[in-house]
Fold these 3 entries.
Entry 1:
Amino acid sequence: MRFRLTPRETSFYELFATAADNVLSGSKLLMELLGADPATRVEIADRMRAAEHAGDDATHAIFHQLNSSFITPFDREDIYRLAARLDDIMDFMEEAVDLVVLYEIDELPKGVDQQIEVLGRAAELTAEAMPRLRTMRDLNEYWIEVNRLENQADQIHRRLLAHLFNGTYEAIEVMKLKQIVDVLEEAADAFEAVANTVETIVVKES
């Protein structure tokens, strides 16, 4: 850890923890969508939209704090990147829920539940990791596991695509379902991007 003579603005830690907790809430709404009757999905989508707005608020709070702070706990570009990538996760999860509702999907294909379970685990790890930025300790297992989960998500995504293109579905249905599973894969990629950013921060500060 580099020694500093100047005081640092510490509210960023709480702001990142808030953003990550909101991501965890979003992942739980995704899980709730899986077992929901199509008639109740609109209400879940409304709650996910509210969570996405809360995520935007958390991101804007971090940017505001960044613009008003002379001394930051770590590099400004890393603060910006970490906030933006946490926001990306919420955007992708909200988009997936919205597409399920807009396309009036009666039944999601087998394998989507596995995608969402991976996202839920990544969200838990991310929410647990953000408070540890304050000490920069015990974070290596976090980014290693999130990278492993992203590899698992890649495999699930490929199997889903193979299933969608095996002739079971009509062409228009394939297009709709592919867009949903692709967005969920983008959410997994975004979790990995957050973990990689955290690794970069820790390496710089060590």
Entry 2:
Amino acid sequence: MSRISLDYDAFESTPVAEKPFPHVVVPHFIGNDDLKAVVSDLPAMKSGGSFPPEALKLTPRVAGMIAELQGPKLKALVSEKFGLDLADAPTMLTMRGRTREKDGRIHRDSEAKLVTILLYLNPRGEDWASRDGCLRLLNGPDDVEDFDVEVTPAEGTLLVFPNGPATWHGHRQFVGTRYAIQLNYMATGRKARYELRRHRLSALVKRLPFSG
């Protein structure tokens, strides 16, 4: 079992883009060879929705990558990059394997989520040529075509942005396989504690049906 290498240097050297809201996009945060290895190891997620890693049977390679993503190194780099104090922020991580018709609608993430990190684990292929399923960072809440940045959800691309009142995002309707990891650094208030409790409960509920 080989360890997955994450390109922290690329993250450090990528400046924060300010439009339509502060964010960083890092292509190939996971290199091509490592990405192939991860994709071959990913668990089957035959239905839509988010799955806590505790609800899935993970190979040691994928489990190790997830543990590193939740570790102190990435958190420290994100803190420095965006000038945030995340030292005491709990982490919440989920995995997705399929996108449904209802997914991708324009939204902002919960205010309980201080920072959103998305890591895309799909090969670049014909699925994304139509731009359906490509995440768009939007100028407002009303039109998915009114975007400033479009992120192809492939090739180990990493997207990081602090959440705020104008962090609208979404994508055109896409139905099919679309592997992604979402990591959030959470606030410590009541709403965040509720979301973390719900996250843990979801892991328990989903563990049996999706243990394969």
Entry 3:
Amino acid sequence: MKTTLLHIKNMVCPRCIEAVRNLLVQAGYTPTDVTLGQAQLDNDTPVDPATVAPLLREAGFDVVMGRADQLTEQIKTALVEYLEHLRTARMPLTTSAFLTDRFAATYSHLSKVFSRTANLTIEKYLIRLKIERVKEMLSYNEMTLSEIAEKMRYSSGQHLSNQFRQVTGRSVSEFRRDLLPRRLSLDQLA
């Protein structure tokens, strides 16, 4: 099956977009638009996703074949954007409102598809995503735990601290004492 739109897993940042674009060009394809989770190819150069998958896999990406998997990857990408929305919006939307606006689908449907394909609820994935962002902020050692909690929209530093321990198995102080804090790449969250 030839297509001009590839759905690609594990794209989480602008460097990923550039890496995928370069991989496709090196393989002889003409990408017209590459965004988080997708690569649109020129109509004259359709591709069989199965042939480009090994090339992308070698670089840490993967082609998403099924519709449920595609939707799950799109939800993951939207949740990364939601974290930025949380951080910057004066009156942020709830997760469900943000996702239903983005996908024009009920939250119940999105949640069922995500849970089935990711083996994790949207809420738990978002918590893991937030904790990874918290680890990043902690590793810079520029803000107090209370400041990080406020920036990440936690009700208190204690709430953040409790959730951090639940997810990582370590306290915030243990994480800060660690000389080489171990962070997870976003594709390892689910």
